[in-house]
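Hi R.,

As promised on Friday, here is the backbone we talked about, encoded as structure tokens. Could you run it through your design pipeline when you get a chance and send me back a sequence?
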């Protein structure tokens, strides 16, 4: 199976430009699963609720999801990508999973970070695993990485790959995903963005790049530079994520002591 990510610098509010850039860069890719950053077509640093409402889109009928479906159809691939989703007056920081036949699922970010809490409603979808044929995939959005319960829930539901659209600003996540993968024996594909935003007199946010693909044994197959566009596609065997036996005596998930945990 071929999986990849596209790390780039979206321009805030320039949805048409960002969609065009992604479509152009991915015009000849050959892969089964492509992951794009969080809020990849809208930009991240909103300065008002009205601004979020004006850029948020219905799913699947908004321009961003429609374009992603076209791309998935043209390239015969699945795509996971982040966007501001509007449902009536409510806006979620969401990610969609689309394939050649259309929308497969939507994940609404559970753990909102920093000023996202002012503009978005916390996600209500929970954590779903979708079978895309070549693998079973689950979605986390950026700051969800800090909650091991989120990745664990996806692993318990059978995910082989954590698809992780991100707009990371703190330095810890790329290394932490090694642990998320090890402790769940899953792959992860983190698609982060680069560049910076400094809008409405707010503090500058500098995105750390370092998108990566990590194996169930915690090996970083590839990590992107911190400040350059990077399109990476790699071969993985998703069935590696299905063997949870650590040795003849230990099975990662079976050996959990649920009776002793507070969850
Ligand atoms: C983040 O959740 N965008 C840091």
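Update: got your reply. Pasting your designed sequence below so it's all in one thread:
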């Amino acid at each position: 199976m071929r999986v990849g990510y596209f790390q780039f610098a979206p321009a805030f509010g320039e949805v048409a430009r960002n969609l065009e850039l992604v479509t152009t860069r991915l015009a000849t890719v050959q892969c089964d699963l492509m992951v794009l950053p969080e809020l990849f077509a809208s930009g991240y640093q909103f300065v008002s609720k009205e601004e979020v409402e004006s850029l948020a889109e219905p799913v699947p009928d908004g321009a961003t999801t429609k374009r992603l479906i076209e791309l998935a159809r043209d390239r015969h691939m699945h795509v996971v990508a982040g966007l501001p989703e509007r449902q009536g007056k409510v806006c979620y920081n969401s990610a969609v999973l689309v394939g050649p036949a259309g929308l497969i699922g939507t994940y609404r970010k559970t753990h909102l970070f920093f000023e996202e809490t002012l503009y978005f409603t916390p996600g209500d979808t929970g954590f779903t695993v979708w079978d895309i044929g070549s693998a079973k995939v689950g979605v986390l959005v950026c700051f969800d990485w800090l909650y091991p319960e989120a990745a664990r829930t996806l692993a318990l539901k059978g995910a082989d790959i954590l698809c992780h659209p991100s707009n990371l600003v703190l330095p810890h996540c790329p290394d932490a995903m090694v642990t998320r993968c090890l402790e769940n024996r899953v792959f992860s594909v983190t698609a982060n963005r680069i560049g910076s935003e400094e809008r409405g007199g707010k503090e500058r946010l500098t995105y750390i790049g370092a998108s990566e693909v990590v194996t169930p044994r915690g090996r970083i197959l590839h990590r992107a530079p911190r400040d350059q566009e990077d399109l990476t596609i790699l071969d993985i065997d998703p069935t590696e994520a299905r063997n949870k036996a650590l040795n003849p005596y230990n099975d990662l998930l079976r050996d959990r002591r649920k009776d002793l945990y507070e969850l």
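One thing I noticed while checking it: Residues 2-260 form a domain with the Nitrilase/N-carbamoyl-D-aminoacid amidohydrolase fold (CATH 3.60.110.10).

Thanks again,
M.
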